[in-house]
Design a protein that fits this description.
Blueprint: E1 17-18, E2 27-28, E3 35-36, H1 39-44, E4 46-47, E5 54-56, E6 59-61, E7 63-75, E8 79-85, E9 90-96, E10 114-124, E11 127-137, H2 142-160, H3 169-172, H4 188-191, H5 204-217, E12 227-228, H6 229-236, H7 240-252, E13 256-258, E14 264-267
Parallel strand pairs: 3-7, 9-11
Antiparallel strand pairs: 1-2, 4-5, 5-6, 7-8, 7-10, 8-9, 10-11, 12-14, 13-14
Helix pairs in contact: 5-7, 6-7
């Protein structure tokens, strides 16, 4: 079997790698970072459309790691299916067998034992699951607690910003339809040094959109592919059509530009 462990701790060390966790292995940073998640986060992850990228806390996720207890197990000649549970929910994890190892590999994973799984979120027949060929049994139960703490840390990082930094909740809690806008002139975020003053000439809705995108673009964990339009829509609230129309106007007026496709944008300045 392929064994791997550890997770991504946001704000890791320089050079694309951060310190290893008690689970072992190296943790990556950036768009393809290995993100520790709970099963509830997996179940509640959002997509713009079927087969599109998954988002958790407004950030795109690809590889994820879960630590959970095995509640049921089934096996075929090529695959082991585990029903796993971590106290926040249950989900199937489909694990590809290693043809070079002995039969009955599932005996390594008895029911009610803990396992770390690294894989990707998938949907088949309208049912979400984890697809992985990297997994191992938990032997040190401190790792179960560590994973829970790590999930909380990364969730807080994406929703409230790094320790000691500007609170990301000031960005993600803006509303499109007249709610409190911390990016309005003289608002709390502006007093904290936010970039809203740059966009004072824009209408309020466009100013909120630009400030959100500019703030997210400065995140060291944000890749060069840009901010997904769906993340902007979720952060603004209100009518999706109106938010997308404002984004289109900002692109036409030269405030935003499309990056890898028409669903990812970055500010021109």
């Amino acid at each position: 079997m392929s064994y791997a462990g550890g997770g991504f701790m946001a704000g890791g060390s320089q050079g694309g790698l951060s310190q290893s966790s008690p689970g072992g292995g190296e943790k990556r940073t950036g768009t393809n970072a290995l993100r520790p998640v709970t099963i509830a986060q997996v179940i509640n992850a959002t997509q713009s459309f079927a087969e599109s990228e998954f988002y958790i806390d407004g950030a795109e996720v690809k590889d994820v790691t879960v630590v959970a207890c095995i509640r049921n197990i089934a096996s075929t000649s090529t695959q082991i299916t585990l029903l796993i549970e971590d106290g926040t929910g249950q989900i199937d994890a489909r694990l590809w067998k290693n043809p070079n190892e002995e039969e009955n590999q599932e005996e390594d994973f008895p029911i009610n034992s803990y396992v770390r799984i690294i894989g990707q979120l998938k949907t088949f027949s309208n049912k979400r699951h984890l697809s992985s060929n990297r997994f191992r049994k938990i032997t040190d139960h401190n790792e179960v607690l560590f994973h829970a703490v790590e999930c909380i840390y990364v969730h807080k990082y994406y929703t409230q910003g790094p320790p000691g930094g500007a609170k990301m909740q000031d960005i993600t809690h803006t509303t499109y339809d007249g709610g409190a806008n911390p990016y309005a002139a003289g608002g709390a975020a502006a007093a904290a040094g936010a970039t809203s003053d740059v966009y004072n000439e824009l209408p309020p809705a466009q100013r909120s959109i630009m400030t959100f995108i500019a703030s997210r673009a400065k995140d060291p964990e944000q890749g060069e592919e840009g901010i997904h339009v769906e993340a902007v829509v979720r952060s603004m609230g209100g009518s999706e059509a109106k938010v997308r129309a404002e984004i289109a106007t900002l692109i036409e007026d030269g405030h935003l530009y499309e990056t890898i496709d028409d669903q990812h944008v970055l500010p021109t300045a």
